[in-house]
Design a protein that fits this description.
single chain; about 120 residues; mainly beta; seven-stranded mixed β-sheet; four-stranded antiparallel β-sheet; 11 strands; about 0% helix; globular
């Protein structure tokens, strides 16, 4: 059974950092492209970052480029999103998904990130 469980969200101050984790089970993470997406209140789903299968190719939305880093730990079967220099516009529910872009077959339940002073 495929499961994706996000964690690591919370409240951060502007300029602060958070690291999101997505623990995968039921499949081998490295064999699939994986993505992070977010949805802010009243807005549509936005693809934030992606990492290709079996390699190191990545994608970042312009809004997070240079601030966010996607990575995975194959031994732990876990996907990460390191978020630095956070600003209030980063406030959203963050999801990890198995797939590329907004095309996915499985998605986690999401973890809330709130950036506020």
């Amino acid at each position: 059974q495929v499961q994706l469980v996000e964690s690591g969200g919370g409240l951060a101050q502007p300029g602060g950092s958070l690291r999101l984790s997505c623990a995968a089970s039921g499949f081998t993470l490295s064999s699939y492209a994986m993505s992070w997406a977010r949805q802010a209140p009243g807005k549509g789903l936005e693809w934030v970052s992606g990492i290709v299968s079996h390699g190191s190719g990545t994608y970042y939305a312009d809004s997070v480029k240079g601030r966010f880093t996607i990575s995975r730990d194959n031994a732990k079967n876990t996907l990460y999103l390191q978020m630095n220099s956070l600003n209030p516009e980063d406030t959203a529910l963050y999801y990890c998904s198995r797939g590329w872009g907004l095309h996915y077959d499985y998605r986690g339940q999401g973890t809330q990130v709130t950036v506020s002073s």
